[in-house]
Write a structure and sequence with these properties.
The structure is a single chain. With 336 residues, the chain is of the alpha+beta class. It has eleven helices and ten strands. α2 packs antiparallel against α5 (75-98), α5 packs across α6 (102-120) and α6 packs antiparallel against α7 (129-147). The longest helix is centred in the first third of the chain and has 24 residues, at 75-98. 34% of the residues are buried.
């Protein structure tokens, strides 16, 4: 087989993957485009700040929860990370669409998809939205690494120029062309089954999708109550929203203190909570618990210490605290 024929054959996988390359590239580049060009979502403490979205991942992230928790408790580092993440998405997405350094960028696709999968693969109120995006990104990134890019790419143009660096041994590994490997079958087999294994593992962990009972943690809000105690005539407790849809909060319309007979001895209704003093809320993360128009709003991933003045109400260990959501859901905890 002559050199021209060999080059033509080696370009075919990249040619066939053109649509995949364009769609995956736009998937990541469009994140930058939406986040910075169409609307600036990189400004902290504003509606739509991407750092708060990142906070939503925290409650049920898999494997990378400590990293997410560190960032949402260090807003300065979080902002730098969100800016860096956005820049990486822009570069990776644009270069993949152009077919420039395709194999190197495909590793970027793989890494970004892996982060999305581990962090937010549990989210999706109507279907397994984030899990599907993440796992298909892994498979797509690996496929683009194997295929490179074909005739419609900057890599192909650079190869055709005959520039000296395009004849280096490392060039096919970061760009396109025939990989200098005698037998690709073991590599393809290993990574294909690795990605398939990650798909099964995360599908089971996040959704119970392989065996057992299916579950969707994005459907109903869940608020965890902890560290309930009375100090200096104040009832203090911690709330942490760990489940439910990420696009709006849990809306508390009632906070009640119950005695040992289940009788309400102290209560705050929706009007009280809509006027709840921000000074009695100590937010621990970027996503903030705060009073809304008709309730106390607890976004997904938000954690806060809340203090309520008991105003002379005597409380003992047989008493309990009850939180009431606008949906009718309730969460209770014993006062310690």
């Amino acid at each position: 087989m002559n050199n021209n024929r060999l080059a033509s054959v080696s370009n075919l996988p990249g040619l066939f993957s053109l649509s995949l390359r364009l769609v995956i590239g736009w998937t990541y580049f469009s994140a930058f485009w939406r986040r910075l060009v169409l609307e600036n979502k990189l400004i902290p403490d504003t509606n739509g700040y991407i750092g708060e979205k990142f906070n939503h991942f925290l409650p049920n992230a898999f494997g990378i929860k400590p990293v997410i928790e560190y960032l949402v408790t260090h807003p300065g580092d979080l902002h730098l990370a969100m800016v860096a993440f956005t820049v990486v998405e822009a570069i990776v997405g644009l270069f993949i669409m152009l077919g420039l350094f395709t194999r190197l960028m495909s590793i970027g696709v793989f890494g970004l998809a892996f982060g999305i999968l581990m962090g937010s693969g549990w989210l999706g109120s109507t279907c397994l939205d984030e899990w599907q995006i993440g796992i298909l990104g892994l498979a797509g990134g690996f496929s683009l690494f194997l295929a490179g890019s074909g005739g419609y790419s900057v890599d192909n143009y650079l190869t055709g120029t005959g520039l000296s660096f395009t004849r280096k041994k490392w060039f096919p590994w970061i760009a396109s062309g025939l990989l200098p490997v005698n037998n690709l079958k073991p590599l393809v087999l290993f990574f294909s089954f690795f990605i398939f294994g990650v798909a099964l593992l995360t599908n089971q962990v996040f959704h119970g999708g392989v065996w057992g009972k299916l579950h969707n943690l994005s459907v109903k809000p869940k608020v965890e109550i902890s560290n309930v105690r009375v100090e200096d005539s104040n009832l203090n407790f911690e709330v942490y929203r760990t489940e439910g849809i990420d696009v709006y909060g849990s809306f508390l319309v009632g906070i009640e203190v119950l005695n040992e007979k289940g009788e309400v001895v102290k209560s705050l209704d929706a009007n009280d909570l809509s006027r709840f003093s921000p000074g009695n809320i100590k937010n621990l993360y970027v996503a903030k618990v705060k009073p809304g128009k008709h309730s106390l709003v607890i976004p997904l991933g938000a954690k806060a210490d809340i203090s309520i003045n008991l105003k002379g109400v005597a409380v003992n260990r047989d008493y309990s605290l009850r939180l009431i959501d606008v949906s009718g859901m309730e969460w209770t905890a014993r006062i310690g």
